[in-house]
């Protein structure tokens, strides 16, 4: 499996923990200016476009709070790969419903791979869709238990929004629950994504 092939697996593994050096402190929206004037935190040597959207800084905290995620505890989750870059942010939602779920883990990654590359990599689980008119993919892999992912096209590449449902029982949750409410969440984040 190539390095980019492990990005989704790594994203699931870091739910709730920071994975970039020096990112133990939660990110705050006032730490950086707008994405149009800010230098990307990470760049690569690939010749690909720089990632101009930074999920931890460019999505307003009140948007994530309204969606049920504790923006005060968001954490950077960057994945520099050398031949491409992913800037990430993890969130947690602990809306416990006994017997159903303990909440959700959410990872938002902005990367300089194309939507076509994402589709080629995951065509077996991906279907084309749109979010607020933006070309996107919905990816539901029965082998990735309790997970749901949207990939949105941008000028620099893609934004991947991956959510894992924390079941409140042994075994997986019903697959119909994996993406419940995800389209609305992604639609609320989409307007803040740099083209």
Strand count, sense and closure of the main sheet?
Answer: 8 strands, antiparallel
Shape: globular
Which spans of ≥5 residues are poorly predicted at pLDDT below 50?
1-35
Q: Strand percentage, roughly?
A: 25-35%
| Strand/helix succession | HHHEEEEHEEEEHH
Number of helices: 6
Give the terminus-to-terminus CA distance.
30 Å
Q: What average pLDDT do the residues reach? A: 81
**Helix coverage percent of residues?**
10-25%
Strand count:
8
* Rg: 16 Å
Structural class: alpha+beta
Briefly summarize what is shown.
The chain has 195 residues and is of the alpha+beta class.
What does this structure look like?
The structure is a single chain. With 195 residues, the protein is an alpha+beta fold. It has six helices and eight strands, in the order H-H-H-E-E-E-E-H-E-E-E-E-H-H. A hairpin with a 7-residue loop joins strand 3 and strand 4. The radius of gyration is 16 Å and the shape is globular.
List its salient traits.
single chain, 195 residues, alpha+beta, 27% strand, globular
Secondary-structure map:
Elements: H1 7-13, H2 55-58, H3 61-66, E1 75-76, E2 79-80, E3 85-93, E4 101-111, H4 115-122, E5 126-131, E6 134-139, E7 147-153, E8 158-167, H5 175-178, H6 182-189
Antiparallel strand pairs: 1-3, 2-3, 3-4, 4-8, 5-6, 6-7, 7-8
């Amino acid at each position: 499996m190539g390095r980019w092939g492990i990005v989704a697996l790594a994203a699931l593994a870091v739910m709730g923990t920071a994975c970039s050096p020096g990112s133990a402190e939660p990110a705050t929206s006032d730490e950086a200016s707008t994405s149009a004037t800010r230098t990307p935190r990470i760049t690569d040597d690939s010749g690909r476009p720089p990632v101009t959207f930074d999920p931890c800084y460019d999505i307003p905290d009140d948007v994530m709070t309204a969606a049920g995620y504790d923006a005060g505890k968001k954490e950077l989750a960057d994945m520099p790969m050398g031949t491409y870059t992913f800037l990430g942010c993890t969130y947690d939602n602990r809306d416990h419903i006994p017997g159903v779920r303990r909440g959700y883990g959410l990872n938002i990654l902005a990367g300089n791979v194309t939507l076509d590359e994402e589709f080629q990599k995951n065509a077996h689980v991906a279907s084309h869709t749109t979010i607020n008119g933006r070309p996107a993919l919905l990816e539901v892999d029965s082998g990735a238990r309790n997970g749901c992912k949207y990939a949105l096209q941008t000028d620099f590449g893609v934004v991947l929004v991956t959510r894992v449902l924390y079941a409140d029982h042994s075994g997986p949750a019903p697959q119909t629950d994996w993406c419940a409410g995800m389209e609305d969440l992604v639609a609320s984040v989409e307007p803040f994504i740099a083209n």
